[in-house]
Design a protein that fits this description.
4-stranded parallel sheet; about 50% strand; single chain; mainly beta
Length: about 110
C-alpha cells in the first residue's frame, strides 16, 4: 500500500488470508494510512518513521493462537500510519462511544 501526499484505508477485518504468513507493506510519504486487522488474528508489526509516526493499537492475540499471521511492515516519511484491531466504526458508532465515555466521566 502506497500513500503519497494523501491518505488511504485498508480494512482487513473480514479478510481470510490464503497463506500461513502474509506480508503487507504500508508506505506513507507526506500522507497517512489506516489499517484495520481482524480480532483474534496474529499480527506482527515492524515499523520505521522519520519526521512522522506510527500508531499501533493491536493487542496481542493469545500466544500460539491458531490461524495465519499477518506481518505488517510500516514506513512513514513526514506522514503516519495507524493500525487498529477490529472493523472501522461508522460515524454514528464513534459518536455513541464518545457519548458513553462522557456519561462515565460525569458525576
Amino acid at each position: 500500500v502506497l500513500s503519497v501526499m494523501g491518505g488511504c484505508e485498508v480494512d482487513l477485518s473480514d479478510a481470510e488470508l490464503a497463506d500461513d504468513h502474509v506480508v503487507l507493506r504500508v508506505v506513507s510519504i507526506m500522507g497517512g494510512a489506516q489499517v484495520h486487522v481482524p480480532p483474534g488474528m496474529n499480527v506482527h508489526v515492524s515499523e520505521f518513521a522519520f519526521m512522522g509516526g506510527n500508531t499501533i493499537d493491536v493487542h496481542r492475540a493469545a500466544p500460539g493462537a491458531p490461524g495465519p499471521t499477518l506481518h505488517l511492515k510500516l514506513f512513514a516519511l513526514m506522514g503516519g500510519n495507524d493500525v487498529k484491531r477490529g472493523p472501522k466504526l461508522t460515524r454514528a458508532e464513534r459518536k455513541a462511544l464518545k457519548e458513553r465515555g462522557r456519561e462515565r466521566l460525569e458525576p
